[in-house]
Amino acid sequence: MPAYEEVDWIEWAVEGIIDFVDELVIAEGYRGPRWHFGDGHSKDGTIDIINKLAKKYDKITLAESQPRRDFLRGNAATHNYVLKISKCIKEADWYMICDSDEFYTDRQKDVIWKTLETADKDAFAVKDRMFFNNFTCYVDQSLARFFRVTPGMFFKPAQFPFYKDGKPYYDYSVNPPSLLLENDPMFHYSFVRKPCREIQRRIMEYCAVQHYQSVFSWIDNVYLQWNEENAEKIYEINRKCFGGKGGIFMNADEEILRLRIYNGDHPQILDNHPYRHIEDIRKIHWPEKAAHKYVLLRHHITHYSLRFCKFIKSILQKAKIFL
């Protein structure tokens, strides 16, 4: 479970998954360049909550995320580090990825457990009901989440597992991972968080791999502006800002994933979550967004400085060739 400034979700996420796993390794910290956000550790109380939970459950192993210049490489490095420091990985059958805003019902856990017990596959994805802005609007996607533990397994960017001989566990175009919970998606509250935190998260994830213009276009035109009245216009903006290839509201086939309305039950553990009955999380905590004007400016400067250095480097390399 990766965790970086997840004070809104981390305690619920841990309590929701701790009975399902033999060991829970929580990797705390930012996986991109540490200088993006100070020392790269959470400053919102997340670490205090993790320490409290670690005293409560001996299943929890604390780890530090492994920062890299490229956020996707940081993801892979962190998974590889977890494989090394895990207390029970040698005896484990399966390696599970669970974000700190993902939840499974008891019924879903039973289905997954029974499937994995007799599985003849080494990789499984789960159908993912990803919520936006509140506990009602969502899109359906799928995420690879369960991988059989094999000797010498390792991860490559971002979090793709490979066998010891370098063969990938799966290839989406040839042999995609089998799908679990196809008719009963797990609950993923990825976009139900304070606007300031969502802006920061998108910056840290995308700027570290230099998907620069698309992330700012997405924040300005999609995340902050979407509502049912202007939905079609927003979908079209999203298509353009991602170059017509995928995106938050689009799948790999460039089909638009329209937000749907969910009126069913949510995992019981979230009954008392502070965001459970909010109308739209984007309408609260707006004063905190002002602080991110500095973050945005800093990343503008950083991005163009890096581009300038890269440009100078290319000129010097060309000059060396001519010499």
Please provide a written account of the structure:
- The protein is α/β, with parallel strands linked by helices.
- It folds into two domains: 2-190, Spore Coat Polysaccharide Biosynthesis Protein SpsA, Chain A; 193-258 and 291-308, no CATH class.
- Helix content is 36%, strand content 17%.
- It contains nine helices and twelve strands.
- It has helices spanning 10-17, 46-56, 71-85, 106-117, 195-207, 212-223, 231-241, 286-289, 292-322, and strands at residues 2-3, 24-28, 60-64, 94-96, 102-103, 123-132, 137-148, 154-156, 160-162, 178-180, 186-191, 260-261.
- Strands 4, 5, 6, 7, 10, 11 and 12 form a seven-stranded mixed sheet that branches. Strands 1-2-3 form a three-stranded parallel sheet, with helices on both faces. It has a two-stranded antiparallel sheet with strand order 8-9.
- Helix 5 (195-207) packs parallel to helix 9 (292-322).
- The longest helix has 31 residues, at 292-322.
- The chain starts with a strand and ends with a helix.
